[in-house]
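Lecture notes, continued. The same structure-token format from the folding unit now serves as the input rather than the output. Read the line below as a description of shape only.
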């Protein structure tokens, strides 16, 4: 699988870090294949994060992810899912490695600036969520 889904989260778009995050993504030599700017409804966010429904942080996560515009992206690179998870770092920016996107631009464990798909199967589902027909068009 050569594709993964990234999302620049509302905190980063709001504070004017979109360009810097995109630049860092390019530093890691990912190619941008698709990009959008949109705001999720509560229902959309609940669907996207359905796997976390039972977690204590779920209500706050849904409110956060639907609180403002986000920038979903399809990224291409060999081994894209694994490589992008390395580029973004651990969920908590304080635990993320030097130079990773979350370490550089994350604000907190929740407001951690960027999402990356965690498996090839989820990448495919998440890409089709934001870019319907993507795989049919390539
Ligand atoms: P993502 O799926 O956004 O790439 P992740 O795979 O590193 O992040 P998940 O466990 O899938 O982490 O959690 C999804 C998102 O939920 C996190 O990115 C973060 O925004 C939020 N989150 C996760 N754990 C916590 C927590 N303990 N407290 C607050 N928010 C959390
Ligand atoms: Mg995840």
């Amino acid at each position: 699988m050569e594709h993964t889904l990234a999302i620049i989260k509302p905190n980063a778009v709001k504070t004017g870090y979109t360009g810097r995050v995109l630049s860092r993504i390019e530093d890691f030599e990912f190619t941008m294949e698709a990009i959008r700017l949109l705001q999720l409804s509560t229902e959309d966010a609940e669907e996207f994060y359905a796997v976390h429904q039972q977690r204590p942080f779920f209500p706050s996560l849904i409110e956060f992810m639907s609180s403002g515009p986000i920038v979903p992206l399809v990224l291409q690179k060999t081994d894209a899912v694994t490589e992008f998870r390395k580029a973004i770092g651990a969920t908590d920016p304080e635990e993320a490695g030097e130079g990773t996107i979350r370490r550089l631009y994350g604000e907190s464990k929740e407001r951690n600036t960027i999402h990356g798909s965690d498996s090839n199967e989820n990448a495919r589902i998440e890409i089709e969520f934001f870019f319907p027909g993507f795989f049919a068009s390539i």
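Point for the exam: The chain has one domain: 2-137.
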